[in-house]
């Protein structure tokens, strides 16, 4: 059987999305993680796939965005770092809940941005 390499569709520029080094992935998304990430990078539309990003306004903790919004060039260019991917909104909310609980357990506070930065530094990424 011949294996085909996935190639970037014609006309798409190099991926400009920022990814968190220790990406949080929901249980359903984990089953198709590499395919979902490839499609996100290539700009393919996907239904029922949600992205968890750091809040774009700086006041809230997270934004939960449906992946089809990445078809908009302006949003794609200005997208905050992607922290997690999930299949379905409920799974995305579960990811956010888990991240906040982990932050509280590890630091005793709710400064998620700082916790995620420190976690990457601590693990050498």
Structure description:
By secondary structure, the chain is an alpha+beta fold. It has one domain. It has five helices and four strands, in the order βααββαβαα. A four-stranded mixed beta sheet has the order 1-4-2-3. Mean pLDDT is 86; it is low at 8-12.
- The proportion of residues in beta strands is 15-25%
Average residue pLDDT: 86
Q: What does the overall shape look like?
A: globular
> How are the strands of the largest sheet arranged?
1-4-2-3
Q: Which radius of gyration do the C-alpha atoms yield?
A: 15 Å
Order of helices and strands: EHHEEHEHH
Calculate the terminal CA-CA distance, rounded to whole Å: 37 Å
Uncertain regions: pLDDT < 50 for 5+ in a row? Answer: 8-12
Oligomer: single chain
Number of helices: 5
Number of domains: 1
Strands, count: 4
What structural class do you assign from the helix and strand content? alpha+beta
Largest sheet: 4 strands, mixed
Helicity range:
25-40%
Features:
alpha+beta, 125 residues, single chain, globular, four-stranded mixed beta sheet, 5 helices
């Amino acid at each position: 059987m011949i294996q085909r390499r996935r190639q970037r569709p014609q006309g798409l520029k190099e991926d400009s999305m920022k990814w968190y080094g220790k990406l949080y992935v929901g249980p359903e998304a984990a089953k198709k993680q590499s395919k979902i990430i490839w499609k996100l990078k290539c700009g393919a539309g996907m239904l029922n796939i949600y992205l968890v990003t750091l809040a774009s306004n700086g006041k809230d903790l997270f934004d939960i965005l449906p992946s089809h919004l990445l078809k908009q060039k302006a949003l794609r260019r200005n997208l905050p770092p992607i922290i997690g991917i999930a299949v379905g909104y409920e799974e995305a909310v579960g990811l956010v809940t888990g991240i906040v609980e982990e932050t509280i357990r590890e630091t005793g506070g709710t400064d998620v941005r700082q916790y995620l930065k420190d976690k990457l530094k601590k693990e050498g990424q």
